[in-house]
Amino acid sequence: MKQLNAGLIGYKFMGKTHSNAYRQVNHFFSDSAKINLTAICGRNKSAVKKSMDTFGFSSFETNYKELIKRDDIDFIDIATPSNAHLEIALMAADYKKHIFCEKPLGMNRREGKQMLDAAIKNKIVHQVGFNYRFAPAIRLAKKMIDDGKLGTIYHFRGLYLQDWIVDPNFPLVWRLDKNICGSGANGDINAHIIDLARYLVGEFHDVMGMTKTFIKERPIVEEMTGLTATSNSSGKKGKVTVDDASIFMTHFKNGALGTFEATRFATGNKNNMSFEINGSLGSIRFAFERMNELEYFNNEEDKQLQGFRTISVTEGSHDFIHAWWPPGHVIGYEHTFTHEFSEFAQSIINKKPAIPDFYDGYMCNVILDSVEQSVSERTWITIE
Ligand SMILES: NC(=O)c1ccc[n+]([C@@H]2O[C@H](COP(=O)([O-])OP(=O)(O)OC[C@H]3O[C@@H](n4cnc5c(N)ncnc54)[C@H](O)[C@@H]3O)[C@@H](O)[C@H]2O)c1
């Protein structure tokens, strides 16, 4: 059995999902490699040591440079905020380590391009963390579109709605600091629906957007876990430097129209990532909080019997499901990560490119930057 030694950087939200996925990959996908939890890295010694014990790693490092230099590491997994992606990736590529990097790939298109170029130059396997592509329902949507079941595509209507910062006293976490994350709802959550639109519908021709920062100052943060946080007791406030909401339109190169709405102020919506695609022969709808289902309208059926039907994407013939449970025994958020790391491990052992790769991450950066440019110039921006 092939084995791969992981070096994971970052031990919080994504660090937890990724390390859980490593454990599941070989348990369920026996044609994939066994991923060893070799080393975990973070800057705080006691916290990273605790994560090593909790997640089951064999060792830890407090400096990512030492991790990358180790001979016993096959791939580097970057699960840090965006401002650390570039420097880690450039060094890891130099050391010929394969790289998995969370989204958005770079802080901007320039960084994304540097990372893509370094990965190509060093002939490593590179993958970007667009995990929603690995939901079986998304694979079914892709197959239906490629098989022509929707006919000519007219519309992609994407939403990514959350509400975790709607309270003006929610603290100033790193996701609200442009120097750390690059952008707000745009890069954090629009990134996912942009990637799905590229995957399902195709490349963008141009974009026109608007963004808004509703709450301009927030209390200084004490600690953040997942999407919850506590404020510092000083009572001091700091400036929010990113968008709270980002909405834009696109013309796809194939003639379809797209609309995208990403916000953290959609009260009542927790992780409502959803879209509808309309074509000449039918439509599909997907909502991540019901990720085991895909809605399908067939415009060629008898009009008297027409209507959206709900497909339970849990048959063994649906992508990835053969590895899991019998029909109707649903899967969840964490499974998307197991699937993406199975893809990554198989790409490394079979020496084939991973999908989605740094090119997909770079293209997403290009579109995100173009949305911001269109907001500042108040005009349509052509995607180069
Ligand atoms: N695919 C998804 O659905 C998804 C979901 C959430 C976050 N993300 C992405 O994952 C990345 C991490 O987000 P998160 O939510 O896990 O953040 P987090 O705040 O929960 O964890 C970040 C981790 O990075 C560590 N870190 C920060 N700078 C570092 C450095 N210079 N060296 C070593 N460690 C460092 C922190 O100590 C922490 O362990 C971001 O790029 C984010 O956009 C993706």
Number of domains: 2
- Average pLDDT over all residues: 97
Name the CATH superfamily assignment of the largest domain: Dihydrodipicolinate Reductase, domain 2
Q: Could you say which overall geometry the principal axes of the C-alpha atoms support?
A: globular
Small ligands present: nicotinamide-adenine-dinucleotide
Rounded Rg: 21 Å
Q: Indicate the CATH topology of the largest domain.
A: Dihydrodipicolinate Reductase, domain 2
Name the poorly predicted regions: none
Strand elements, count? 19
What sequence of helices (H) and strands (E) makes up the elements? EHEHEHEHEHEHEHHEEEEEEEEEEEHHE
- Just name the CATH architecture of the largest domain: 2-Layer Sandwich
Strand content: 25-35%
CATH class of the largest domain: Alpha Beta
Number of helices: 10
Main β-sheet, in a few words?
A: 9 strands, mixed
What order do the strands of the largest sheet run in, or round the barrel if closed? Answer: 18-17-16-15-7-14-13-8-19
The span between the termini is 44 Å
